[in-house]
Design goal:
This protein has about 260 residues and is an all-alpha fold. It is built from 12 helices and no strands. Helix 6 packs antiparallel against helix 11, helix 9 runs antiparallel to helix 10 and helix 10 runs antiparallel to helix 11. The termini are far apart.
Length: about 260
């Protein structure tokens, strides 16, 4: 009896208390009021200097890695060598068109890889946290890659399109259509499968695009003159789908869906 009376009560630590006893309840009214004050101060903030788009481009190019410059330079060098090799053969046949299409598809994937770097290793989360304009950075990366790809496309068309049986315009469409649709597939995989779109899987997507660009070569009449209108329609549809994919990617960046949450 006395032993029970003399026993000291056990001291209860904070961890042993029920959650309702030690956790402070959230005051949603004060939270909303604080957020409203922060938003008001942000709106009253005056930005002293707005850098021009050309200055933003220069700033982005400063942070390009030497590996990216080397890859893009290798694309231009390989394109020149391919032009010299194909021009020396003087065939202008459809197998050459298929080979150049595959090369242009790989060039597009390499030059647009800078866009993928913006979303790799959770960099998109950091950029959104620091209030950097991620959409502007994507635009600059796509502009840089698009200029290089356009230069390669014009180079092939100018030097190799003269020997095409259906004309230089048709040759341009034969190269443009696989390039556009491969870019659509690349951006779609980047936007929707970002969490798994790295390393060998990115290379596999390039192989898939290249394989799809070879499909017209298995048809004997795909490059005939009577199908030029179909190639033109595919190019117009490619531009529309590419614009829609870019718009959807920008909307996901704005809302933080699948870009900053993966």
């Amino acid at each position: 009896m006395n032993s029970k009376i003399n026993q000291k009560p056990k001291r209860r630590t904070a961890g042993s208390l029920p959650e309702s006893r030690w956790k402070f309840p959230l005051d949603k009214a004060r939270k909303n009021a604080g957020l409203a004050l922060i938003q008001k101060e942000v709106q009253l903030t005056c930005i002293r200097r707005h850098p021009s788009f050309a200055e933003n481009v220069r700033n982005q190019l400063r942070f390009q890695t030497w590996q990216q410059w080397m890859m893009q330079g290798s694309v231009l060098l390989a394109a020149m060598l391919l032009v010299l090799f194909a021009d020396s053969r003087k065939t202008g046949g459809f197998p050459d068109i298929a080979a150049v299409s595959v090369f242009l598809v790989f060039a597009g994937n390499i030059c647009f890889s800078g866009v993928g770097y913006l979303f790799s290793y959770h960099m998109a989360e950091l950029e959104k946290t620091l209030y950097l304009d991620l959409k502007q950075m994507v635009c600059i990366q796509m502009l840089e890659g698009g200029i290089i790809d356009l230069a390669v496309l014009i180079l092939f068309t100018a030097f190799l399109g003269r020997g095409c049986e259906t004309g230089i315009t048709a040759y341009f469409l034969y190269l443009l259509v696989p390039f556009l649709w491969s870019d659509i597939l690349y951006l779609a995989m980047l936007t929707h499968l970002r969490s798994v779109f790295t390393g060998l899987k990115q290379f596999a997507s390039g192989m898939l695009c290249a394989a799809l660009s070879l499909l017209p070569a298995f048809s004997q009449d795909a490059y005939e003159e009577k199908y030029i209108a179909a190639w033109a329609l595919l190019s117009v549809a490619g531009f529309l789908f590419l614009a829609a994919e870019i718009y959807q990617m920008f909307q996901k960046i704005e809302r933080g869906e699948n870009v900053c949450l993966n």
